[in-house]
Amino acid sequence: MKTKLVVQISRSLLIARWKQTLVAAVGVTFSITMFIALLSFMTGLNVLLDGLILNRVPHIRLYNDIKPNKDQPVTHDNAYKNSYHFISSVKAVNVRQEIRNSSAIIAYLKNSKNVLGVTPRVTTQVFFNDGNIDLNGMVQGLDPGQEDKLFHFDDYIISGSGADLLKIPNSIILGKSLADLLLADVGKVIQVTTTKGEIFQLKVVGLFQSGIQEYDKATSFASIGLVQKLLGKTGNYVTDIQIKLTDINNAPKTATVFARIFNTDAEDIQTANAQFETGSFIRTLISYVVGITVLIVAGFGIYNILNMMIYEKMDTIAILKATGFSGKDVQKIFLLIALVIGFSGGIAGLLLGFGLSLIIDQIPFVTPSLPTITTYPVNYDPWFYGIGIVFSLVTTFMAGWFPSRKASRVDPVVIIRGK
Amino acid sequence: MGKIILEARHINKDFNDPVRVSVLSDINFSITDGEFVSVTGKSGCGKSTLLYILSTMDTDYEGELWIDGESTENKREEQLARIRNKKIGFVFQFHYLLKEFTVLQNVMLPGLKLNEYPENEIEHRAMEKLKILGIEHLALKNANLISGGEKQRVAIARALINDPMIIMGDEPTGNLDKKNSEIVFDTFKNLAREYNQTILIVTHDLKFASNTERNIEMEDGKIIHDNRLENLIK
Is the whole model's pTM more than 0.90, yes or no? Predict the structure, then answer.
């Protein structure tokens, strides 16, 4: 049968009961709207939560771990080569924390194709002196420019400026909680004692808030040069090299390669933060389950309305069949009706969902742990819109399939003689 | 005598609800080109059942049905739909127009389904059919905004749109007042006489039946009189 005729009949049936059509389409619209808004909002939150850790954690960290030497005398003895070695009371050796030949490694990594960026760090323990109390803490020496580029360092500085670390000599950025304990603020001078007992006066140029209380209580940042000075080391002393890759998924593989090449320890992000991967996956799963449930419920709505429509149109179906339309033709007509409802409702749903996402994006969301966030996060991933429209068509097709099959099996004799 | 258009051979039909009841038993007859036939009988004699079997809509029977020299046995639903579309025009007791469409669209639909002519040609033909029935002024009205007699005439125009070999009517005047009945009957008669249209009408209106060329009388699922046969014997 000509498609044009199917379209013509479907259109007339749709228009004849436009209120019912509208209700069905609104059902789809509502569910798609909710699907888009829910997923955008939930994955927006997901990205935010993941970003809390993943953004500021390097994909690969090169360092020297303190651990027992694997190379024990017994392993050198050929007599025990194929035996299992039991060695008790092995002690960790005092390895050098410094990464050997760090400047060459950094230069090499900067030229690597799959490396997005590299930045060195020097870390040391210090005591923050406040009257007669000594607070234990860490000072991380870093390059503020690179850190901001790779790990959004400036996003977490709530007052002052990261770049001041380089401009002002003997300056430090304190974690917010640590600063509260020390009653320090930007511009004040605090006193630290190094592990070697030397005392330094450092000027606070900024406050840092990561959102993780324990971290903010014990962490501070300074320039690499200053930390090398605190440690009494030379200018090429580096304890950590932080690497960001172009593709985070390559991290575990690349880490083992780097560990072998540079003869250091290498830790990848997946190993260091396995719980975030799991959490993120579960949250995404839940978002999709909720979204798809909404769509299926809408599908049942469409099913009901089409079923009702078919009961109302029994006469029409019977007459179409009596005048020479086959069951297949009738089925096509009702399937087309279902798809039109699904498509128009779906498109409207996408637009409204986008609108609702925009509104959510404007709602203020202020939390002390996330200084850079002012409104609820929304993820405008075009994927959701694709899934939304495909799913609206699939559910309406399924919801239209059974009623339309029923319509195709209507026996015209029963309807016509039953009058 | 003209070509045989429709032939029933040994048609039997039973209902099995709740006990086996024979509705039609051993129906044999044929209709030739240009005949105006009426089927009469009391309520429940099986005349409507027979008509729906002849129309190919009811396929649950025993025996053979030949339409235009072709057996309908073992034909798929789609093929039967095509036969109905092309060769049979149907007029029901209740108007059965599609109320979602205009009068003209109602008449055109079977033509569009058959798809043998372009749309504007079908429209032209539909207008012609409406003219034959004298209702061309209603063409653009909505189908549920016209009177009962007019609806039935529109239904006849729709039955004519594909120039069917036979028009079947199930009590086409059963739901109309006297005046409209006469108009509809005259319409059929006119079609039979002037256009040599083959017509088969089921009715319990004896006056209607007595005016047709041939009358088949049924009782308890059997043909008891076939008026043409008697004429031939005389």
Answer: no
